[in-house]
């Protein structure tokens, strides 16, 4: 158990600094070093004879004692965490914004994080310190999302899926702050996210894939990477940084990839076809990027959009829709359990959102019903 006392330190300028003395030492998450002292930034003049200064000294001491009692109460209730008080006066909004930028691996994920940050910033009037984060604030933000209008128009309410996604990103930011020791607990743990609707996930039909293969792209690397996503089902966050060190070949398993998934944080073993291997291009050094120079950017997204347009595809297709396409093909040919394994999902429910039946198959079934 952590014990602490209110102590004083005499400064050279004659003032007395008040601080809390911890035992055993606690870890400062910013420096990574252990310390026994948390300076309260409260000072008083011990040698003054002025009655008003003496009265002021008593007020300052009372404020320090209040902070000590607050720490003690948190210790008793189990909400005290080592280092959690170092960040109290720092901006949670700045932290949230930085976490959003770290997710710039795909357009959909980054835009969702950015929007979540924007709504939370608007909700808090652009001011929120770590010490302001409470369970009540987190619940109030959920209520705010359920009632607010979109950033673009005051006439439109947020969709059910937008509320769900924005709140989940906020929860992820809260959890990350907790893991880094910047707040004392996971304040969103007991709060259920707004309910989402099951959206239709767009995918490409066989004729559309064929048109893409036949249509030249301004940057061949983009074309090869897109088709590679379709025939492997890998997330774009794993395809863009893919290195040749992840590739291996043997006479039994043929072409395989062993890599650490950026989203799951786990190593996956993923067999790929001969066609997928050819799309990777010429074998390079172990540390060479397979799709050299390819990264998530607005310019590359524009090039992808123009290529799809040239192929006559009018659907709104992003990089992640290529994974959807792979999922639909695998599930239709081999079943939903095969889809779960090939998509590396932990739960079957996640795989079920991809279980769309192709148009041709639906037409065939519809025409088979004759009375």
TrEMBL record:
Superkingdom field: Bacteria
Matches recorded under Gene3D superfamilies: 1.10.150.130, Intergrase catalytic core
Every Tyr recombinase domain range: 199-368
Keyword entries, A-Z: DNA recombination, DNA-binding
InterPro entries, per the entry: DNA_brk_join_enz, Integrase-like_cat_sf, Integrase_catalytic, Integrase_recombinase_N, SAM-like_dom, Tyrosine_recombinase_XerCD
Residues forming coiled coils: none
PROSITE patterns associated with the record: TYR_RECOMBINASE (PS51898)
Family listed: Belongs to the 'phage' integrase family.
Matches recorded under PANTHER family: PHAGE INTEGRASE-RELATED, PROPHAGE INTEGRASE INTD-RELATED
Name this protein carries in UniProt: Site-specific integrase
Organism of this sequence: Sphingobacterium bovistauri
Taxonomy of the source species: Bacteria, Pseudomonadati, Bacteroidota, Sphingobacteriia, Sphingobacteriales
């Amino acid at each position: 158990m952590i014990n602490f006392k209110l102590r004083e330190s005499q400064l050279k300028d004659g003032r007395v600094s008040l601080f809390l003395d911890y035992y055993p030492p606690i870890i400062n998450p910013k420096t990574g070093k252990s310390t026994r002292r948390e300076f309260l930034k409260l000072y008083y003049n011990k040698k003054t004879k002025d009655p008003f200064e003496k009265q002021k000294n008593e007020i300052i001491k009372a404020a320090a004692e209040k902070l000590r009692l607050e720490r003690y109460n948190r210790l008793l209730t189990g909400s005290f965490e080592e280092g959690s008080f170092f960040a109290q006066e720092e901006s949670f909004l700045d932290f949230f914004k930085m976490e959003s930028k770290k997710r710039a691996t795909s357009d959909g994920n980054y835009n969702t994080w950015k929007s979540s940050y924007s709504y939370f910033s608007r909700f808090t009037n652009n001011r929120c310190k770590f010490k302001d984060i409470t369970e009540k604030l987190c619940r109030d933000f959920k209520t705010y999302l359920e009632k607010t209008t979109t950033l673009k128009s005051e006439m439109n309410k947020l969709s059910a899926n937008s509320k769900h996604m924005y709140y989940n990103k906020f929860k992820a930011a809260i959890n990350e702050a907790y893991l880094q020791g910047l707040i004392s607990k996971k304040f969103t743990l007991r709060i259920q996210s707004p309910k989402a609707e099951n959206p239709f996930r767009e995918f490409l039909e066989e004729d559309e894939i064929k048109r893409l293969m036949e249509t030249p792209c301004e940057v061949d690397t983009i074309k090869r990477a897109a088709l590679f996503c379709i025939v492997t089902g890998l997330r774009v966050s794993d395809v863009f940084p893919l290195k040749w060190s992840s590739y291996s070949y043997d006479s039994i398993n043929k072409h395989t990839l062993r890599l650490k998934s950026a989203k799951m944080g786990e190593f996956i073993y993923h067999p790929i076809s001969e066609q997928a291997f050819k799309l990777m291009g010429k074998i390079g050094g172990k540390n060479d990027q397979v799709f050299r120079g390819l990264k998530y950017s607005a310019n590359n997204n524009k090039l992808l959009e123009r290529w799809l347009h040239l192929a006559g595809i009018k659907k709104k297709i992003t990089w992640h829709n290529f994974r959807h396409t792979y999922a639909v093909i695998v599930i239709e040919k081999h079943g939903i359990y095969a889809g779960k394994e090939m998509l590396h999902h932990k739960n079957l429910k996640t795989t079920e959102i991809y279980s769309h039946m192709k148009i041709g198959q639906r037409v065939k079934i519809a025409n088979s019903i004759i009375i």
